[in-house]
Amino acid sequence: MSAAYINFKGVELRVEYDYQPEEKEVRYYSDGSGYPGCPESFEITAIYLVHGKEKIDVMELCEAYYDEIPEAIKNSANDE
Fold first, then answer.
1. Which residue in 6, 31, 43, 58 has the fewest CB atoms around it within 10 Å?
2. For residue 2, which of 62, 74, 67, 64 has the smallest C-alpha distance?
3. Into how many domains does the chain fold?
4. What are 40-77's pLDDT values in tens digits?
5. pTM of the model
């Protein structure tokens, strides 16, 4: 599991997620076998609004933005 703090639509959130990068296809190994590869996978496991020491679960409130949040995390990592 990984976690990131992001500013999403003007709100500071802590997003916990599981990420699996893409694995490329290998057509043939030297023994004649191969590997079909695996697409990138990003699964959000928790979203919290952090207020002081308190974490407020806002996962259900953010459900409509599940497609945008991974991109916000990638962008915040590039800003660092």
1. 31
2. 74
3. 1
4. 899 999 999 988 888 999 999 999 999 999 999 988 87
5. 0.77
